[in-house]
Specification:
Belongs to the universal stress protein A family. The protein is an alpha/beta fold. It has five helices and five strands, in the order E-H-E-H-H-E-H-E-H-E. The structure holds adenosine-5'-diphosphate and magnesium ion (MG).
Length: 146
C-alpha cells in the first residue's frame, strides 16, 4: 500500500464546523497535487410523504438541494482561491455516511476529509454520528478535523 494522495473527498454539510476541514482538504490537495471532490449528501428525516403532504415534501427537498449547492460552492470557491478546480458532488438517496463511504470506494478516493462535528454540533460530543460512521466503515484513511 502506498501513501499517495492523488484524490481527496471533502465531505461538507455546509456548517461552520466544517470550515477548518475545508481549509485542510484544500491545503493538502494543493501540497500533493490531488484532485478534489466536494461531497454533500442530501439528508432525509425519515418522515414519510403521507405524514408531510406532497407540497411540504417538495419544498423541503428543494431546500436541501439548495443547501447542498451552497455547501459545495463554498468548497469550490476555497479551491479557486488556492488555484484548484474542485468538483461539486451532490448525492441523494443514501444516508450521509453511506453516501460518503460509497463515493470514496467507487472513485478510488485516497483520503476523506471531514469535520468532527457538523450542523448539529453538540459540543459535549467528541465525534458526530456521520463522522463516526465514516471512520468506522470507510476502508481508507479519514482525516477528521476539529
Ligand atoms: N449530509 C452530509 N453530507 C456530507 N458531509 C456531511 C454531512 N453531514 C455531516 N457531514 C460531515 O461530517 C462531519 C461531522 O458531522 P456530523 O457527524 O453530522 O456531526 P453533527 O452531529 O455535529 O452534525 C461534518 O463536519 C461534515 O464533514
Ligand atoms: Mg450532522
Amino acid at each position: 500500500m502506498s501513501a499517495e494522495i492523488k484524490t481527496i473527498a471533502i465531505a461538507t454539510d455546509g456548517s461552520e464546523n466544517v470550515m477548518n476541514a475545508v481549509e485542510w482538504g484544500i491545503g493538502l490537495a494543493k501540497a500533493n497535487g490531488a484532485k478534489v471532490s466536494a461531497l454533500y449528501v442530501v439528508p432525509h428525516t425519515g418522515v414519510t410523504l403521507a405524514m408531510r403532504g406532497e407540497m411540504w415534501s417538495k419544498a423541503l427537498e428543494n431546500h436541501l438541494k439548495d443547501e447542498g449547492e451552497k455547501a459545495t460552492a463554498y468548497v469550490v470557491e476555497a479551491g479557486k482561491k488556492a488555484g484548484l478546480i474542485v468538483e461539486p458532488v451532490i448525492i441523494d438517496g443514501k444516508t450521509p455516511a453511506d453516501g460518503i463511504v460509497d463515493f470514496a470506494k467507487e472513485n478510488d478516493t485516497n483520503l476523506i476529509v471531514m469535520g468532527t462535528l457538523g450542523v448539529t454540533g453538540l459540543s459535549h460530543i467528541l465525534l458526530g454520528s456521520v463522522a463516526e460512521n465514516v471512520v468506522r466503515h470507510a476502508k481508507r484513511p479519514v482525516l477528521v478535523i476539529p
